[in-house]
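USER: For my understanding, would you kindly supply a protein sequence with its structure tokens?

ASSISTANT:
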Amino acid sequence: MNARRTGTVKFHLNPQRPPTLTAAQKKTLLAKKDEQIDHSEIPSRVDVSWTRPGALVPSENKRQLTIRLDSDVVAFFQSTGKRYQSRINAALREYMNAHKRAG
């Protein structure tokens, strides 16, 4: 079928090159309240549980040191985004607290 006859337009999103908004589109979007934005086309992510980060430890309490970690461990934490070192610290803190409680 032809798009001219059906009125259907097919679009394939390239995540590496997302479409850019025009100035008018940006203005229209910024003028809308959150509840006015249509999210019906966004797939639901029921398999993901979002958690709030715990309280941050003040930087005065931190010590800089050199530590050798397996490259796959570092790659995993880096793939989670910025502040990956804080997440490594949080994982180590959980381990430490679990061992304190156990013994």
In short: The mean pLDDT is 82. The longest helix spans residues 84-102. The chain is about 40% helix and 0% strand.
